[in-house]
Design brief:
Layout: E1 4-9, H1 13-24, H2 26-33, E2 37-43, E3 59-61, H3 64-68, E4 75-78, H4 85-95, E5 99-102, H5 105-122, E6 126-127, H6 138-145, E7 151-157, H7 160-172, H8 176-185, H9 194-197, H10 200-214, E8 224-225, H11 233-241, E9 244-254, E10 259-269, E11 281-288, E12 292-299, H12 303-320, E13 351-361, H13 366-376, E14 381-387, E15 395-402, E16 405-406, H14 407-419, E17 423-432
Parallel strand pairs: 1-2, 1-4, 2-3, 4-5, 5-6, 8-10, 10-17
Antiparallel strand pairs: 7-9, 7-11, 9-10, 11-12, 13-15, 13-16, 13-17, 14-15
Helix pairs in contact: 1-12, 2-12, 4-5, 5-10, 7-8, 13-14
The structure holds nicotinamide-adenine-dinucleotide, L-homoserine (HSE) and sodium ion.
Length: 437
Amino acid sequence: MEPVKAGLLGLGTVGGGTVNVLRRNAEEIERRAGRGIRITHAAARDLDKPRICDTTGITLTTDPQDVVSNPDIQIVIELIGGDGLAKDLVMQAIEQGKHVVTANKALIAKHGNEIFAAAQKKGVMVAFEAAVAGGIPIIKAIREGLAGNQIQWLAGIINGTGNFILTEMRDKGREFEDVLKEAQELGYAEADPTFDVEGIDAAHKLTILSSIAFGIPLQFEATYTEGISNITREDVAYAEELGYRIKHLGLTRRTDKGVELRVHPTLIPERRLIANVDGVMNAVLVMGDAVGPTLYYGAGAGDEPTASAVVADLVDVARVLTSDPENRVPHLAFQPDAISDLPILDMEAVETAYYLRMQAEDKPGVLAEVTRILGDRDISIEAIIQKEPTEGSDKANVILLTHVVRESKMNEAIEKIEAMKSIHGDVTRIRVESLKA
Ligand SMILES: NC(=O)c1ccc[n+]([C@@H]2O[C@H](COP(=O)([O-])OP(=O)(O)OC[C@H]3O[C@@H](n4cnc5c(N)ncnc54)[C@H](O)[C@@H]3O)[C@@H](O)[C@H]2O)c1
Ligand SMILES: N[C@@H](CCO)C(=O)O
Ligand code: NA
């Protein structure tokens, strides 16, 4: 059989990795797919730039339209990123009846509903395994492997750059900016690294995971998003003293009232496997009613790990090119006419435990006042430590771990505590999840 012809948009980290993996593993890929997969054309912004891949045998162009409109190309691989030009190109490719493979989570999280509807109409596939947790086949695991379950919740470390930064800061005492620069050099970071640091990238990915887990539309705007830029080495050390690790976590859970959808730094008991996922590695813990907890671990970013997922999608497309569109795996795991309208819970209604750190004047009565404010709101305390003021300071660090409470109550309590004369500055609040499986 003729090889499937694919056109590539973007020859950067993931594009270069995809060319390399396809070339190196061509023979095995053909044995799996039933036919070869060849990138015949590729669009790059600058044709003279040094690349990580050999482009021999690929017709290069600076105009992505040459690829999208080429009638011989059956699959368009979008690896440019962003949701401007990339969206136009993907919509055009679909319009022309081409299948699409993409690693672009921003695009899917923000415009996936529209893109999948267009693809459905045209009977083409839009595959996006590389968009979530890089090389970990998490989309496939949830959409196909766990299709017999009611998924109850899932939680993941889904930004490699952020986890790399937190790990290096903790293990080597390195500075935030310095580690971020290294992550950029290694090809882990987004074009705009604030997406990694402020949790936006993780929110894109969690939006996608939540949809395929619960059969709800993609709702990026409803995702509560907090990044890691305010985490200090101090908090990391205190958390460890209490037996926890701080991880940047995406968590989505089905409740009677709606779906929790939130991304924020989280204290996790150090004995949990997921608390020990370090560096650029990602992990997603999925709780199904039938299977129980399952954990998926692997490289969340980088050229070849991500290419591993892109190429797997290419193999999927090659396999189904001849099959009936109605019988393919649906984009969001559930049939398009069976998507539910379960609401997303407001963050104020979420219930979780908390780590609080505050700077208190070192005098009698302050702790009693803090515990009274918490007690008045039925917030019970699980642990408390007070650190003597360091030399030259008269403020003690007070660290509290609370039991589970509604976020709105905690907001009230924090407001009251911050208003106390003997408490200085803001209260640091990090949510705690036991992730008990
Ligand atoms: N780097 C990773 O580890 C990783 C992992 C998973 C997903 N992703 C996603 O993959 C996509 C690509 O990321 P990347 O890290 O490879 O980025 P990159 O910046 O290394 O590559 C993007 C390439 O697209 C090219 N490009 C931009 N505009 C273009 C145009 N008009 N025509 C042709 N080429 C154009 C750029 O010149 C660049 O070479 C993004 O959506 C990103 O979120 C990246
Ligand atoms: N910037 C992303 C790339 C993988 O999606 C990360 O660091 O996880
Ligand atoms: Na993946």
